[in-house]
Amino acid sequence: MGELYRARGASKVYHMGEVDVEALRPTDLDVIEGEVLVILGPSGSGKSTLLHLLGGVDRPTAGTIRFRDTELTDLDARGLTLFRRRHVGFVFQFYNLLPSLTAIENVAMATEVAPNPRDPREMIALVGLADRADHFPSQLSGGEQQRVAIARAVAKAPDVLLCDEPTGALDYRTGIKVLEVLHQVNHEFGTTLVLITHNAAIADIADRVVRMRSGRILETRVNEAPKEPGAVEW
Amino acid sequence: MVIRTLDRKLLRNLHAMRGQLLAIVVIIACGVASFVTVLTAYRGLKSTRDAYYARYRMADLFVTVKRAPRAVLADLERVEGVRRVEGRIVFDVTLDVERLWQPASGRVVSVPDRRAAILNDLHLTRGRWFEGDGTGEVIVAERFAEVHGLDVGDTLRVIMNNKKEALRVVGRALSPEFTYLIRGGTEILPDAEHFTVLWMSETFAEAVFDFEGACNDFTATLDPGAALEDVIAEFDRRLDRYGGLGAYGRRDQISNRYLSDEISQLRGSATMTPTIFLAVAAFTLHMLMARLVATQRTQIALLRAFGYTTAELVRHYLKLALGIGVLGAAAGTGLGIWFGRKVAGIYGDFYSFPVLAFSVDPVAIVGGWVVSLSFAALGAIGALRAVARLLPAEAMQPEAPKTFRRMRMERLRPFARLPFPVRMILRHVARHRMRAAITVGGVALSAAILLLAFFSLGATQEVLDHQFRLADRQDVRLSFHEARGKGALLDLRRLPGVRAAEPELEVPVKLVHGHRSRRSGISGLDGGSTLHALLDRDLAHVPLPREGLLLSRKLAQILDVRPGDEVEVRVLNGRKPVLSIPVESVVDEYLGMFAYAELSHLSRWIGEEYALTGARLSVAEPRAIGEALKEVPAVASVNFKARAIASFQATLEQSQHIFGTVLILFAGAITFGVVYNTARISLAERARELGTLSVLGFTAAEVRRVIEGESYLLAALALPPGLGLGAFFSWLLTRAFDTELFRFPFVLHRSSIAQTIAIILFFTLLANLLVRRSLRRLDMVEILKARE
Ligand SMILES: Nc1ncnc2c1ncn2[C@@H]1O[C@H](COP(=O)(O)OP(=O)(O)O)[C@@H](O)[C@H]1O
Ligand SMILES: [Mg+2]
């Protein structure tokens, strides 16, 4: 299998007044097409920063990031927007649904800008919320909202799903449910999954695990026997 | 000091919201400025007029007679309530001004040979009083001299008592009696190019008009508290046998009436426009403060938990509101005084007042501050109540999540077909109804102001058009010194280039109906008149009455008569017959106030076979006839329509341009301020949504549409009520402007509506462009990190 991403020497420095914060030190990372990659690390270790660089919402201070044949660092703002629109699905810790749109509308709206979207109704059914499709976010529980967010991300038929602590705000049972959905998407559609967590247990579902600390990758390990999300416990 | 810290927080809050606050300050400043401007101009104009009248002894009472011995003055002085009476010789004459190819008209007014403190005193702007007995010397009206470049030492050829005389200009002067250079009678527009006053020495005037020891015009001042009506009655009684044309008070003096109309019109606008501005400012401030308090709930709760009292916190937020009020008041009064002086200067120029009582008006300034601060406080009330009601524990909870519900209109099928951004916009508006209503209200009010402005510009044009293009079809209108027979008309027809000449007979009368009465003129017209169309407002021709009178609607209202009623007609000249004549019909005209009758009937009422006092001409070559008429001694005045309109139009346009520009800027400030504020608040509340859209791959333009779409939707929603309100204001204006001199038609042109819409959209666009700047600064990554 080929590489989806190839990051070389990618780093990120934030300037906060007088001080520079090295959120991400120069990092090499490959993401393989179709894999489930878990990035594990304590809070503040630079996971989100790395994910933002991969997703094209932010630019590295130095280094390069290639997505298939495209150098993301060569793209202008509009190019990055189009990149996100065509290739990336995001899932956030706090769901970020549009509060003024219903569940199905949230999903459908995202498909409007995608080149070959999937059917929003099918996606809502996929995450098990067919009967709640016409509810507004404020009428849904946290887990339900996160599943809608996943449906929204998947409906664009992205090449990669970038998830930043998708279970971080959820209780155990709901969290497992969300992981199952993500797992299913990876299996059914072959969508590459990059998942951030500070919860080591979740790393068991990964094909590969990247461990980070203080803006650096400590190790990259291949998981010989990934578990089903249902078998994970914490 | 704890309070100090709180103040620092306040300053930081202010800084963060400076764009929005500035917009509110601008709206308040506009309101205060318009208030101060109008009040400064109104009070300044009024006190200038009063000072002018007092210093130059403007008369309280005027009366013209045919001829009376000067001895009658002693008799008049004895009338109870009269303080002082003066007699003079007044004649209308024609003059030949070199610069003009047509004759101009002049009114000779005699003044004592030696300078004295007379009534209606002159203010000499140049030159001197008469030398010796003043023979051959004249002082001309400043404005007229200015237009024609006449100066001391120049000569002016005047046809007086059928003789052409070359007079030497010895001075230029202003008089309170002729603040507006307007001839009166059939002339109802001021025209400084073709009309002047010619002040001559008594001795000279007596000689020229064969008036030794006699006079034909009296002016008087009254004791304070004297009953004008009684004095008028007594004067009329005593002057009857000298051919008195009926005394009248200052109120009916034409120049004064114009001036007073102008002043009262200013007072009307001193309240309406500022109120609109300040109300909008208060609402916008309310919106902003509510938002501020909502985002600072946790802070407020914390402060309360630390032990700040409710009063301290309320005072804290009130300070913010009052700070805005102070800025608005300072900017507004400054702007208002500056602009008020500009306006005053324009008026001063226009009237050439010799006295200027314009000053920085403390009432206007104090008023501006009071109004500004109270409206700012008013705008803060809602937020202050919210602060006072907030319980510490309650506020520590995060604000309830944004809940959206389906709107009723979503049951309609087409809703499901709307694009998502539109649905978002609609639901957002439906969720923030109060804010939407304030925005819609503000924009609607500015649309109303704009439509009103365009309406009044259009309506004035309409009136001029109606009067001078459709009703008055002659090229030249002239009047004779005295009534003449049919032969005079035939003479006119023989003048070079005259295509048609139609007679007019003006008879000065007093119309009486019950206890109501009015001095007026009756115009006698020929049945087949084509040069003067009697038109009502729908442009329908109104036939001349066969036997009775046709009255202007306004005159009929004043006399309280309806067609079919009889009015008593007291002819004021000649043999002074008193007749009872039926009113046959009423015509709705815009300018002036007239009574009409068929010419041969009118002639018979005054005991003549066929008389005319003037004529309307249609001519092939105005210039030729102009030169010819300069040589006809019987002609008292000549009016060339085209020139008169042009000069009036020019003055009108000047003031309208200023007025129009200011209103457009003011209305623009409201629209801009309100739209900008709403968009910024919306932007702040929805930053997370917009960031999400951006991360999802929506382009900047697509993201922007969600915010801008809301602005345009609100502006569009504001247009129908705004235009409706503007139409209502316009209609109110037509009611308020129903004066004896002017009336407006209520006609809204499509172009006025189109211009209003265009300006509203333009300022909405402008506000959106500024919002774009803030939108560009939105940092997606930051937004995604932030917890709800
Ligand atoms: N916009 C920023 N400005 C300054 N520092 C930042 C910014 N974003 C992140 N950081 C810092 O960079 C480091 C890494 O942050 P992040 O990538 O969010 O870590 P993680 O997601 O692993 O918790 C942290 O120390 C954080 O404080
Ligand atoms: Mg993170």
Your description of this structure?
The complex is a heterodimer of chains A (234) and B (788). Chain A is α/β, with parallel strands linked by helices. Chain A has 6 helices and 10 strands. Chain A has helices at residues 47-55, 77-87, 103-112, 120-126, 142-155, 172-189, and strands at residues 3-16, 19-32, 36-40, 62-67, 70-71, 88-91, 160-164, 192-197, 208-213, 216-222. A 6-stranded mixed sheet of chain A has the order 6-7-8-3-9-10, sandwiched between helices. In chain A, strands 2-1-4-5 form a 4-stranded antiparallel sheet, covered by helices on one side. In chain A, helix 3 crosses helix 4, helix 3 (103-112) runs parallel beside helix 5 (142-155) and helix 5 (142-155) packs parallel to helix 6 (172-189). With 788 residues, chain B is α+β, with helices and mostly antiparallel strands. Chain B has 3 domains: 60-258, no CATH class; 432-473 and 649-788, no CATH class; 474-647, no CATH class. In chain B, strands 3-4-9-6-8-7 form a 6-stranded mixed beta barrel. Chain B has a 6-stranded mixed barrel with strand order 13-14-18-15-17-16. In chain B, strands 2-10-1-11 form a 4-stranded antiparallel sheet. In chain B, a hairpin with a 6-residue loop joins strand 16 and strand 17 (578-587). The radius of gyration of chain B is 34 Å and the shape is elongated. Classes of the chains: A alpha/beta (234), B alpha+beta (788). Chain A binds chain B through residues 48, 52, 55, 57-58, 77-78, 81-86, 88, 90, 92, 94, 96-101, 105, 108-110, 112-114, 136-139, 152, 156, 164, and chain B through 401-405, 420, 423-424, 427-428, 431, 688-689, 691-700, 702, 780-781, 784-785, 787-788. Residues 47-48, 164 of chain A line the site of magnesium ion.
